[in-house]
Amino acid sequence: KQEVTQIPAALSVPEGENLVLNCSFTDSAIYNLQWFRQDPGKGLTSLLLIQSSQREQTSGRLNASLDKSSGRSTLYIAASQPGDSATYLCAVETGFQKLVFGTGTRLLVSP
Amino acid sequence: GAGVSQSPSNKVTEKGKDVELRCDPISGHTALYWYRQSLGQGLEFLIYFQGNSAPDKSGLPSDRFSAERTGGSVSTLTIQRTQQEDSAVYLCASSLSGTGREQYFGPGTRLTVT
Fold first, then answer.
1. CA-based Rg of chain A, rounded to a whole angstrom?
2. What is the pLDDT of residue B35?
3. Residue contact A99–B103, C-beta within 8 A
4. What is the pLDDT of residues B62-113, one digit of tens each?
5. Widest CA span in chain B
6. Is B31 at the interface with chain A, CB within 8 A?
7. Could you tell me if A71 lies within 8 Å of chain B, comparing CB atoms?
8. Is A84 helix (H, G, I), strand (E, B) or coil?
9. Which DSSP state fits B86?
10. Pairing mode, if any, of strands A56-59 and A62-67?
């Protein structure tokens, strides 16, 4: 059974810092990995999608890497801003397009 | 364009009553998913539709839960005889068909069973 873990569970940083969020999964047989952010009381916003054949994806200040063989992904956020405060979730796609979600990292960026 | 929409946004119901939750996917998305987010369980998969058929219902927690999709578009998740442990946020997502597609989520329906 696929299990997805995110470390740390919570992170508090001052504005401007670069930071790394970690995601690990137990079964390397995945189709892709997706990073989301969730604001309180809201749905999920897709940030980046990495196909299983890719090593990384970039969007603005965000960069996500994937090492499928070791079961790891990282989300790098450059020059963090208070607007980045949210819960970040990673999810891996297993068979039948099913997403298995991690436990989430709650990020707080202070001005 | 319009994203995934869900209704109602909030639902409070008494234990034992039936509820229906609705999802309108992005136009043209043939795949539709239901997930549930609860405090103790995180975010978990419930059911997946490809068109009007559901090849994977493995996540439905009990036979009180059912879902249907009509016209390859709108989907309804029905919970019969609701229990307090059904209280959660129910999220719907849609995507183009095929593996490796990005899933787009709606704002969710917060269900509270009293």
1. 13
2. 95
3. yes
4. 999 999 998 889 999 999 999 999 999 999 999 998 777 889 999 999 999 9
5. 40
6. yes
7. no
8. helix
9. G
10. antiparallel
Number of alpha carbons in the 13 Å side-chain half-sphere of residue B17: 12
Chain B residues 37-96 with CB within 8 Å of chain A: 42-45, 48, 55-56, 58-59, 91, 93, 95
The answer to whether B35 faces chain A, any CB pair under 8 Å, is yes
Mean pLDDT by 10 residues, chain A (111 residues): 93 96 95 93 91 94 96 97 97 85 95 95
From chain B, pick out residues whose CB is under 8 angstroms from the CB of A52: 100
B59: its two tokens? 């996540």
- Chain A residue with CA closest to B102: the answer is A49
E runs forming strands in A1-111: 4-7, 10-14, 19-25, 32-38, 44-51, 56-59, 62-67, 72-77, 86-93, 99-101, 105-110
Q: How many Å lie between the alpha carbon of A63 and the closest alpha carbon of chain B?
A: 17
Strand-strand pairing, A10-14 and A105-110? parallel
Which residues from A are below 8 Å from B104, CB to CB?
46
With an 8 Å Cβ cutoff, are B105 and A46 in contact?
Answer: yes
Of A49, A89, A93, the CB nearest to B43: A89
pLDDT digits (tens, 9 = 90+) for B5-32: 999 999 999 999 999 999 999 999 999 9
What tokens appear for B20 in the block? 């229906």
3-state secondary structure of B84: helix
Question: B69 has which bridge partners?
Answer: B75
